[in-house]
Amino acid sequence: MNMMNNVLPFVPRSGLAARASLNEFVNWAKSQIHLYDKPSDPVQWGAISWSRWGINNTRCSKLGKRNESLDSGMIDYVKAMLFEERVVNLSEDNYRLNALRCLEKALLDINKEADIISVTAAIFDRATLISQEYNSESTAYSTSLQLKRICDKLIESGMVAKPFIWDPQVKEPKMTLRKSAENAEKKLPSFESIAALGDIFSSNPESSLDIMVTSAVAILLSQPSRVGELSYIKKDCFVTDRDEQGRSQLYMLWYSQKGFGANRKIIPDSMAEICKEAVGRIVDITNEAREYARWLEENPDDFPHHLGVPKKHLDAPLTMEEVCKCLMLSTKNHSPRNVFKVFIKKICTSKASSGLAREVAEDILSGFNEDDVSRVYIKGRLSGYEFNDAFEVTLRKLNLLVREKYLPKHFPHTDSKKVVKWKDALFCFRSGTFSVNKGKSEKPFGITGMCKHRLSTQLTGTQKKTQSIFERYGYSGVKVNTHAFRHLLNTVAQRGGLSQELIARWSWRLHESQNWVYNHVSPEEMADKLEVFLPQVVDSNILASIKTNVPVRMKDVGGFENRIVHRTEFGVCVHDYAQEPCAKFNNCLTCGEHICVKGDDVKLLNLKDERGYLRRSLVSFKKEAREETYGANTWLETTIEKLERCEQLIKVLEDPTIEDGALVKGVDNSWTAGCNALSIRGELGESKSGILPKNKDDDRLAELERILGLGD
Q: Rounded to the nearest 5°, which phi and psi values hold at 124?
């Protein structure tokens, strides 16, 4: 029996290779993590979280058990994945950590051990089910996408003993019209809030807090950005360039938090001057703070100068009175020695203190001698005590402690991403700038910036003891969420007909599919777009070009490019075939890239021929549908839609009130050949729309939902 217990299990070559790849990945992360070491406080790989060293959202706890660490067989892999995501890819997607927690639980449920190289498709399926049990519908879907990325990386990196193919079977949550209405009501800013902020901005406020709030809002209303990205704006943030039409265009330099990186955003002409004014106001009240930040960076060993600092050498001993004056600590009610002792104790007990600062503070604290004390008498009366303390305080030591206590964690950079330094940041203020209690002495040691919590509190009034900016200016009951401005600009862009690609780029989203969350166009607007082909006169010469077979360019139909557009049997197609083939598979009547020209009699006849064909087909499909022929209902629906489009288009093209040469463009119905293939495979997710509901029994809305593929 003893001999049997010593037998080692056979491990196939593929398993050995997977283990070697996993170990190499973990060792790479371990070798790089020490770049985040602090002085005398190196990063501890085994810590349950690395937030202490500035790497946030890295708590390796079990699913639903915050204080219990992940299984020892998987935790090194999870830490390596988090290091790669947080530090290398500069992303903080919490769904990644949630996916890893679900994967660990799935491994334990099925294999009874959390060995990542033994994952299979069944384990990933189990992980998605666990995510659905623990999370909301939208979170489960986002987690499933992260599970897919984790699966692909494991296989591509050779960290799986038996490679496999896996795709999550979690459908993207359907956004119904009713739910979209609820979202719009919550996420769009009220007219009262925008008008009030505009009035306050126009009044040219004098307090630093009001300047900060109104200027930040003005910037957020100039381009759809996230409030956290304001901390990355530099003082010199504007760039002027020429657009494709040769006009002067203002841009602002930004840095995106969601992996888009550094880039520039276009500022609409209507907001250009307001945005410039907002930035100018911030610059005026922050110049001194930036100079202070520059001095701190360039003089790391010097104590910040003020009137209370004695003119002594950095290593010369200081008295307790001099120490308290240097630290600007009040000694009105307590002796300087006791006041300084309290200051030192706070540094010793603070979890945020670095190892070096704690070491210096503990050394000083250990030198306080409470036993060897002498009474001091003057003219026979007790005037104080003398302690035989064994510590020595110098400006060099105080400088280290002051910087540790008052400066931001990642100084001289604004955060752990090290994108912007404080000496260059637009939102750079001295500590105490926004203090409500002006009677409290302000210590001019610290630097603060665009605090998301402070801005949110000022706009929402969620802090009971602090007045919001609306309350200070007499706008009772008004409030707005900081993210509402991003929703507003996206909705305006949708309403203005900006392409989904441009909206995504303007908003700095990596995927166009995320636009729908921010689209809050009203049902009346969307219904009108679907029911009416809106004519627009662009160039009266286009009709002549079409009739004489002269090539038609994109500029002739309202575009900016100089390429030739394609002709169709009903008009012209503006799709760029150099980028991708036709996704509509010749379904021109339901395509948003197809344009008809009023007055082209040949194309009008073709449309009437198409109408006749569709009418005849409709009769046949109705008959087949009544006989329950397989697939007839689908053909019937698509034919009805095409016939409706054809009838509307002919009606517009025959309207005598519309001038010849007008361009008539329809709205895309979102159908593509790719969608059809996914539908056949049963993998097509629900369509998304930002339409708001009217009445549940509204026939017009029901038809609208049918065309867009929404509804129950």
A: -65, -35
The CA angle 412-413-419, to the nearest 5 degrees, is 150
> Which positions ≥6 away from 160 have C-beta within 8 Å?
18, 117, 119, 154
Predicted confidence at residue 666, as pLDDT, reads 72
Q: 492-519 b/e with 16+ CB inside 10 Å = b?
A: ebbbeebebeebbbbbbbeeeebbbbbb
Whose CA is closest to 688, among 494, 513, 524? 513
Question: 563-587 burial, b for 16+ CB within 10 Å, e for fewer?
Answer: eebeebebbbbbbeeeeeebebeeb
Mean of pLDDT values over 444-473: 84
Please state the rounded mean pLDDT for residues 22-26. Answer: 88
| Whole-number pLDDT of residue 102 | 92
CA dist., res. 442 & res. 306, Å (int): 12
Quick one: angle between helices 320-327 and 395-406, nearest 10?
A: 30
Strand order through the sheet with 261-266: 238-242, 248-256, 261-266
Phi/psi of residue 316, nearest 5 degrees = -80, 140
The percentage of the chain sitting over the pLDDT mark of 90, rounded to a whole number, equals: 10
Please check the confidence at residue 27 and state whether its pLDDT lies above 80: yes
3-state secondary structure of 451: coil
Tell me the two tokens of residue 679: 């539908």
Q: Is the dihedral of CA 51, 56, 58, 59 positive or negative?
A: positive
Is residue 581 within 8 Å of 593, Cβ to Cβ?
no
Specify burial of residue 675 (Cβ count, 10 A radius: 0-12, 13-18, 19+).
middle
- The tokens of 663 are what? 């361009």
Structure tokens at 577: 């075939």
Question: What's the confidence (pLDDT) of residue 278?
Answer: 92
Contacts of 325 (CB under 8 A, 6+ apart): 308, 309, 310
Residue 252's pLDDT is: 87
Q: How many CA atoms lie within 13 A of 83 on its CB side?
A: 25
Whole-angstrom distance, CA of residue 214 vs CA of residue 216:
5
Taking CA atoms, 96 is separated from 82, 91, 123, 468, 618, in Å, by 8, 10, 17, 36, 50
Average model confidence (pLDDT) across the chain:
77
Closest CA to 587 of 531, 668, 650, 529: 668
At 684, the pLDDT band (50, 70, 90 cuts) reads: very low
The answer to whether residue 405 scores a pLDDT higher than 90 is: no
Q: What is the mean pLDDT of residues 523-542?
A: 50
pLDDT of residue 211: 93
Question: CA 519, CA 687: separation in Å to the nearest integer?
Answer: 13
Compute the C-alpha angle 130/135/140, nearest 5°.
Answer: 75
pLDDT tens, position by position, 614-669: 888 888 888 887 777 777 777 888 888 888 888 888 888 887 777 788 888 777 76
How far apart, in Å, do the first and last CA atoms of the chain sit? Answer: 65
430 phi/psi in degrees, rounded to 5:
-75, 150
Q: Are 67 and 86 in contact (CB under 8 A)?
A: no
Largest CA distance in the chain: 121
Type of residue numbered 250: L
Helix, strand, or coil here: 505? helix
Higher local confidence (pLDDT), 410 or 51 = 410
* Closest-CA residue to 215 (of 368, 509, 484, 426): 426
DSSP track, 441-494: PPPTT-EE---HHHHHHHHH---TTS--HHHHTT-TT----TTHHHHHHHHHHH
3-state secondary structure of 566: strand
CA 49 to chain centre: 23
pLDDT tens-place string over residues 275-297:
999 999 999 999 999 999 999 99
